[in-house]
UniProtKB/TrEMBL annotation:
SUPFAM superfamilies in UniProt: P-loop containing nucleoside triphosphate hydrolases
A Pfam entry, by short name: AAA_23
Organism encoding this protein: Vibrio atlanticus
Stated name of the protein: Nuclease SbcCD subunit C
Protein keywords: Coiled coil
Ranges in coiled-coil conformation: 211-272, 550-577, 613-668, 746-773, 833-867, 976-1030
């Protein structure tokens, strides 16, 4: 990446627009330049502009956005930065621009804009802020961090990498080269390892935590369950009998309680009826009066309506008289208000006639006053202007005289110093040539010093060569001894191998390990197969027993269904007969002795001829009990069948599952045996002497156990043999490693010797070259000085000596500046004289015009005053000093009040007339209503009298005495109905309870059941139920244990398979974790960073060789990322980086910075470099070393810009970009040639 040009505006203290074109002079001829100026002038702002144009940020300001821009110059409304640069032969343009609202310095910051374009075609590639920075990174291959460490080294960061500790250096390497991915890989591998280990441990713990029942335990549990099931069946039969016994006792008790309750209720109802007899008689006597109640009620209503209407009519008559009086009063007040309105309107008309005459006079007075005031003001203004113009005339005359005197003095000076006119043209050229002479003089001194140093280096290198020769001889001797040791170790290893190689032994061990792992699976499969066969036999027997029981219960239930239907039909027939007898009993009760029967016509009604109802009821009760017993027995059969169905279904599922387990065990056995046989057929070497299992060995525990023991034994033998062979191999490898290490050191000693000899030859060559350069520089210096003196003499000026040239330049520069300033001053004076003469003429014309205008204004003012006096006198005679508007408003208010009073009186009259008409209408309505109500009353009275005559009552008083209140009558009716229903209900319950009691006493088991009371039966039933529940709980627990055991045996096979698979995965990730895995990612990251640092040191040493051949960087072998320096001028002594001097540190830091630049620039070469370092802490010798390094770097084709205010640096670097600070203004500027003129 090469920076071509930079243009920016209003950044920090550099106010205005500036442009630096690095492709033009003076930068094109000199790739090394300095940016100089006092502290705080704005030198670093130039580098800030580069960063802002590319990345919208600077090293000192992390973010520049809409609400935050500390980079914009104070008091300006916008800032701008644009950079043109070249990458791989293509030119690009990148800029950043931000304004304030309305372009004002106090406006709000607006959203920044940007542009990234192809400078060759002017095609815009991106204008969005975030996308633009990403495109810059893509094109240049540098993000902001890499850019500030490869192209632009900011203040304080130049030696950051060299002086950093190991941890900080690791972070810098990671940040610069992106090696954080290795940390993530290391962490992920460690996490995968821990997860795999946890899964494996979980599976193993799960396998160890499962316990299976033994065969003896299974048999005991099965026998216990069968015993409990038989006892459960016996308890069910016994519970059925006790429940029937308890139900009979409950029915007997209930019947006895119902008879006693019904008899009590019947007696209570009869007593209540007797106590309420008087009230019931009163109810009966009120029936005739109830028939007359509507007519009497209608009569009273009509009488009340007549009275109410008469009262309304009387009130209306009184109110009508009041309304008539109010109406007459309102009429009188309206007439008075009308007269007042007419009078006020007449007064208003008279006043308006006078106002019409006065208003024009007021308008004329106002106009005259305005004109008079304007004339007076104009006259005063003209007087003031006239006075000012007289004063200005005097001042201009004085200034003109002074300017004429100054012009005369300038003319005399220019004529006297005519020779200084052309100095400005030649002084710059002469100063540049003097600077070149001095540069050659400094180079001559430096080359002389270099020649002395080179001669010393040649002597030192001869000592280094002697040391290298001694070191090589020692390494050759050690190498010979280690070759003998290695040969002996190799013979021992080969002797142990014998006829069988380590590869064959490892293969046989791997085969046996594979067999041993699968042996565990075979043992589990065999145990599962035997257990499944035992379970299948037990489940099949239980299934046959339950199926036979279901068949037996189904047949018995079919018989019970037929019996139930027969009993149900018989019960319905008896019910119909009893109902018929009940109906016939009602008719018999209605027969009277001697009268004919309406059915048969007989007059003899003998009761003995009727059927015996008691026998029918007894038969019905017997049938009902038998039906209930059959129903209970059928329900019990149904419950047993329902309970057996899920048990049979569960047994079917268990049988199918067990059969599937057996088939799966056979398939698993075949699979594992097949893998063993396949592994033996795939094995290329000599197989172990061990007979494999076959498919038919499934179920043979002895054969499987023998095979497992043999695998274990042979595996142990092979492991011991391999261990001995491995120890011998390791001993041989260690000897070989030592031999190779010493061999490398011997090669290195040889290399060091060759390098020292080559270095000796290079130093001799360098010494010869330095002597030649000393002579060339001396000759060039003499030629440059002679040419300069000849150029000065040609201008007719005497040339000074070189040691006095600075004073001579100062004097001539002052003389040239004085002549130019005097010439410019004379031109300015002539311009001012022309301007002031024109101003004097203009003032004369203005004074004359003002005097004439003032006389005219005075005459106008006197005329206006006379006219104003006449008009004011005429107005006073007509209207006095009264105000027209106020007088007119007062009259209008008086008229308005009179009209409002008239309107109010009119509204009162209208309201009174409306109220009078309304009340009159009401009065007529009440009269008509009274007539109608009186007619209705006469009709109701006649109807009442007619009804009273035909009733049993003598008069209205007798009627009212017999009449009951409606609420009382309703209560008596409800009471009578309730008493009748209570008697009927009590008798019915009594009859039903007695019939039930007879039925229970006639039960077949009644006599036997009465021997035990109800409490004894309840206790026996509860005891039987508890025993049955306890047995059911035990049966469920035993079944659950057996089922869990079966499930555990099935799951165990899958679990061992998962453990084998997980173990393989764990072995792989465990090996990888031991190599590069770590919890915090350090292991792999440090390895990757070590490789990166090796590459960086290699690149830095290449740069050091070009800058200064004395030093070479090395990594500390035992200290991670620490660095040390090899000093080749001091016998290759190793030095810590902290012992380097300022100049040495600068050289090494610069080499590291250039190496980092090469390292991080993935896509492009770095052809521009900016160093923001002050060099203020370096002494003169160290500064010379640093500047020589920069010269060498510049010679390689790089453009280098250095920011500094060190005077020695200014002298050594001919091209300087000066930044000047204006005292007290807070702004700075560069030289005028870089200013962009709008």
């Amino acid at each position: 990446m090469k920076i071509l040009s930079l243009e920016f505006e209003n950044l920090n203290s550099l106010k205005g627009r500036w442009k630096l074109d690095f492709t033009q002079s003076p930068f094109a001829e000199n790739g090394l330049f300095a940016i100089t100026g006092p502290t705080g002038a704005g030198k670093t702002t130039i580098l800030d502009a580069i960063c802002l144009a590319l990345f919208h940020r600077t090293p000192r300001l992390k973010s520049i956005a809409k609400g935050n821009n500390e980079l914009m110059t104070r008091g300006t409304g916008e800032c701008f930065a644009e950079l043109e640069f070249e990458v791989q032969g293509k030119t690009y343009r990148s800029n950043f621009h931000q304004k304030r609202a309305r372009g004002k310095h106090d406006g709000a910051l607006q959203t920044p804009t940007c542009e990234f374009a192809d400078a060759d075609t002017d095609k815009v590639l991106e204008t969005m802020l975030t996308k633009k920075t990403k495109l810059v990174e893509q094109v240049t291959g540098l993000d902001f961090s890499r850019f500030t460490k490869s192209i632009m080294l900011s203040q304080g960061e130049f030696a950051a990498f060299l002086n950093a500790n190991a941890n900080d250096r690791a972070e810098l390497l990671e940040e610069l080269t992106g090696t954080e991915v290795y940390s993530l890989i290391s962490e992920r591998i460690y996490d995968h390892f821990k997860s795999s280990e946890e899964s494996l441990n979980h599976l193993k713990a799960k396998a160890e935590g499962v316990s299976l029942l033994s065969e003896e335990q299974i048999k005991e549990l099965t026998a216990e369950r069968e015993t409990l099931e038989a006892e459960q069946k016996r308890l069910a039969e016994q519970l059925k009998e006790w429940q029937a016994h308890l139900s009979w006792w409950k029915d007997v008790t209930k019947a006895e309680q119902t008879i006693a309750t019904s008899e009590h209720d019947c007696k209570t109802a009869q007593d209540e009826l007797g106590r309420n007899q008087p009230s019931l008689e009163r109810l009966a006597n009120s029936e005739p009066a109830e028939k007359l109640r509507p007519l009497h009620k209608d009569l009273k209503r009509c009488e009340q309506e007549v009275n109410t209407t008469q009262a309304h009519l009387d009130n209306s008559t009184k109110l009508l008289a009041v309304r008539d009086a109010e109406k007459q009063d309102a009429q009188t007040k309206l007439t008075q208000s009308s007269a007042i309105v007419e009078q006020v309107k007449t007064e208003q008309q008279d006043q308006e006639k006078i106002i019409d005459l006065v208003r024009p006079l007021d308008n004329r007075i106002a106009v005259l006053k305005d004109k008079q005031t304007a004339a007076v003001n104009a006259a005063n203004t003209l007087n003031e202007q006239h006075t000012q113009q007289r004063n200005q005339q005097v001042v201009l005359v004085q200034k003109t005289d002074a300017l004429k005197q100054q012009d005369q003095l300038c003319t005399e000076y220019l004529n006297t110093h005519q020779a200084d006119q052309h100095l400005e043209k030649y002084l710059g050229q002469w100063q540049a040539k003097v600077e070149q002479v001095r540069t050659l003089e400094r180079q001559h001194a430096e080359q002389l010093n270099s020649a002395k140093q080179a001669l010393c280096a040649v002597d030192a290198q001869q000592t280094i060569i002697k040391s290298a020769q001694d070191a090589k001889a020692a390494q050759d001797k050690a190498l010979a001894e280690l070759v003998v040791l290695e040969s002996s170790a190799k013979q021992q290893w080969e002797a142990l191998q014998g006829n069988t190689s380590e590869q064959v032994l490892n293969a046989q061990k791997d085969l046996l390990e594979f067999w041993n792992r699968n042996t565990h699976s075979l043992l589990e499969i065999n145990r599962g197969f035997l257990n499944a066969q035992q379970q299948l036999h037990a489940k099949t027997q239980a299934h046959q027993t339950n199926t036979q029981l279901v068949d037996k219960l189904s047949k018995e239930r079919e018989v019970l269904v037929e019996r139930y239907k027969e009993k149900e039909t018989s019960l319905e027939r008896l019910t119909r007969l009893i109902d018929q007898e009940g109906e016939l009993a009602k008719y018999r009760a209605a027969l009277e002795s001697g009268s004919e029967c309406p059915l048969c016509g007989s007059t003899d009604h003998s009761i003995e001829q009727s059927q015996d109802i008691a026998n029918l009821v007894a038969q019905k009760e017997t049938e009902n009990l038998e039906l209930t017993a059959i129903k209970k027995e059928g329900q019990e059969h149904r419950q047993q069948l329902d309970s057996l169905a899920p048990m049979i279904a569960a047994l079917n599922d268990d049988i199918q599952r067990t059969q599937a387990d057996i088939q799966q065990a056979q398939l698993n056995w075949q699979g594992v045996v097949g893998k063993l046989q396949q592994s033996l057929s795939d094995f290329a070497g000599t197989a172990p002497e061990l007979a494999l299992l076959t498919v038919n060995d499934l179920g043979n525990e002895a054969t499987v156990a023998t095979f497992a023991q043999q695998c274990e034994l042979q595996l142990s033998q092979f492991s011991q043999q391999l261990k001995a062979l491995g120890d011998a191999k390791a001993h041989y490898a260690e000897a070989e490693k030592q031999r190779l290490s010493v061999s490398v050191m011997a090669d290195k000693a040889q290399s060091n010797l060759e390098l020292a000899e080559q270095r000796f030859a290079d130093l001799n060559k360098q010494n010869h070259s330095t002597n030649e350069q000393v002579a060339q520089i001396a000759q060039a210096k003499e030629q440059q000085w002679n040419a300069l003196k000849e150029s000065i003499v040609q201008t007719a000026i005497e040339a000074p000596e070189l040691e006095h040239i600075d004073d001579w330049f100062t004097a001539k520069s002052q003389a040239s500046n004085t002549w130019q300033q005097t010439k410019q001053q004379q031109a300015d004076i002539e311009k001012q004289l022309i301007t002031q003469n024109a101003e004097l003429k203009t003032l004369d014309d203005k004074l004359s015009s003002a005097e004439k205008e003032l006389a005219t204004l005075t005459q106008q003012s006197e005329s206006l005053a006379s006219e104003l006096t006449r008009v004011v006198s005429e107005r006073t005679e007509l209207f006095g000093d009264k105000d027209i508007q106020a007088t007119s408003n007062a009259m209008k208010q008086k008229v308005t009040e009179a009209v409002n009073a008239f309107d109010a009186a009119q509204l009162v009259l209208n309201r009174c007339e409306l109220e009078h008409r309304t009340e009159q209408t009401k009065h007529i309505s009440f009269c008509e209503e009274l007539t109608s109500k009186q007619s209705s009353y006469i009709q109701a009275s006649n109807a009442w009298l007619e009804a009273l005559k035909t009733s049993p009552f003598e008069g209205e008083a007798d009627f009212e005495a017999a009449l009951l209140d409606e609420e009382v009558r309703t209560q008596l009716q409800i009471q009578k109905k309730s008493l009748d229903e209570a008697i009927v209900s009590a008798k019915a319950r009594l009859n039903t309870a007695k019939a039930t009691q007879v039925e229970l006493q006639n039960h077949a088991n009644a006599k036997a059941w009465q021997e035990q009371d109800q409490q004894q039966v309840e206790e026996a039933t509860t005891e039987c139920q508890n025993a049955q529940q306890s047995h059911a709980t035990k049966i469920g627990a035993i079944s659950a244990n057996l089922e869990t055991d079966n499930q555990n045996r099935s799951n165990q096979q899958d679990l061992f398979k998962q453990i084998d698979e997980q173990q393989v995965d764990f072995d792989d990730i465990s090996r990888l974790n031991s190599l590069i895995g770590s919890k915090n990612g350090d292991k792999f990251r440090k390895f990757a960073q070590g490789l990166t640092l090796e590459n960086l040191v290699y690149l830095a040493n290449k740069q050091l060789q070009r800058l200064h051949g004395r030093y070479e960087l090395k990594r500390k072998a035992d200290d991670g990322l620490e660095l040390q320096v090899l000093d080749t001028w001091q016998g290759d002594v190793m030095r810590d980086t902290k012992t380097l001097s300022g100049g040495e540190s600068f050289l090494v830091s610069l080499a590291l910075a250039l190496a980092l630049s090469d390292l991080v620039s993935h896509k492009t070469s770095i052809d521009s470099l900016f160093l923001d370092e002050g060099f203020g802490t370096l002494d003169s010798d160290t500064l010379d070393i640093a500047l020589n390094a920069l010269d060498n770097l510049n010679a390689s084709g790089k453009m280098i810009g250095v920011i500094s205010h060190v005077e020695a640096l200014k002298e050594r670097v001919p091209v300087q970009l000066k930044v000047t600070k204006h005292s007290g203004l807070g702004v700075s500027e560069m030289e005028k040639q870089y200013k962009v003129i709008a």
